[in-house]
Amino acid sequence: MGCVSVTIDIAGLPREHTAFEISPLAELGMALHALSTPGHHPGLHGWATATAAGLSPDLADRLHEAEFLWQTTHSDVLMPFAGLLSSPRRPGATLAEELDLMDRLDDERFAAAALDFTCGMSYGKGGDVLGDPVYRDRMLALAAARGPQVLAAARQLLDDLPAFRAWLRRLLEDCNEAFFADAWRRVAPQLAADARHKAEILRHKGLAEALHAVSPAVSVDEGLSRITVDKLVSGRTTAVDPAVGTGLTLVPSVFGRPHLLVLHAPGWRPVILYPVGGGPEFTGPGSVELLKLRMEALAHPMRIQLCRNLARTPHTTSELAEAHGITAPEVSRHLAVLKKAGVITTRRRGRYVLHQLDVAVVARLGSDFLEAVLR
Prior knowledge:
The chain has helices at residues 24-36, 45-54, 57-66, 95-104, 107-120, 133-144, 148-159, 161-205, 207-214, 288-298, 301-312, 317-324, 328-340, 359-365, 367-374; strands at residues 6-9, 18-20, 218-220, 226-229, 235-238, 248-253, 261-263, 271-275, 344-349, 352-357. The chain is an alpha/beta fold. The strands form 3 sheets. A 4-stranded mixed beta sheet has the order 3-4-1-5, with helices on one face. The protein has a 4-stranded mixed beta sheet with strand order 2-6-8-7. Strands 9-10 form a two-stranded antiparallel ribbon. A hairpin with a 5-residue loop joins strand 3 (218-220) and strand 4 (226-229).
């Protein structure tokens, strides 16, 4: 499988330019992710069930339309401070302040961030999102595979971006009124305490100790020139970019557990969003033979990579083939092994056949594997 990780170059970064901050908008994004994919967050099952039951039909429908921004992963538009080329380059103190920062992102940067992670599977590769008809057609084709509502949202974004941006802001404001303001009041003190604690570790014990306290999956080399985040994805960015401004931001999240996210888009300030709080409880596996079959199916490096995609959202065979640079028949053979082991599900949506990881099944195999593919 080779070296798989996200690296952040920090050579010459002053210590005071590494900041632990809390972000209401980033936490709202993770709360929405937990609502749309409750299987990723067994520890939040009660909250997700109660919150979903209390949503008005109109708000639930609008969330479904926009969930491509947070279901697969966490769109960079939900951490807009990192994409601004002028001050402030830190989260707002309130959700309203952060939504104001989101409004300040230029149209091309907003559109690329909204579509890149979720529909394009080409994070950080660039492209003229709003002006290139070939790119537009590709985005719409990929959105169509995820259903008519995602396609409608993608069309609105590409056809009338100002209207989409206003619609999204209103949606997030309505979420705040419906459930998030109360949730934020409960989690903000814990997040602020964690950020202060990590900052104290950084101040008194240094960067290596602070990053280890964030997660054992985050480390720095002996020369303090490069941070490595152990994830089943490859990427590289820098925290020392004169065009963008130097700095690294680390954001704690209660709703994000077990995810460990890295914003590493070119031209954006790097951000590590890390989980805090207790871990979920899992039940034991099934029969020994079934366990053996599943462990063998998951032992292959490429199948682990496929599971990372399938854990977040359904994918077609052709999407997986393009994402991993292998042929569709190769993907099909790997999917057949995973399906025989009962760790993926398959369903048809129109002319598309979509595959998805059964997170509940994988969770019973062990939290280490689940956290690795969701990290």
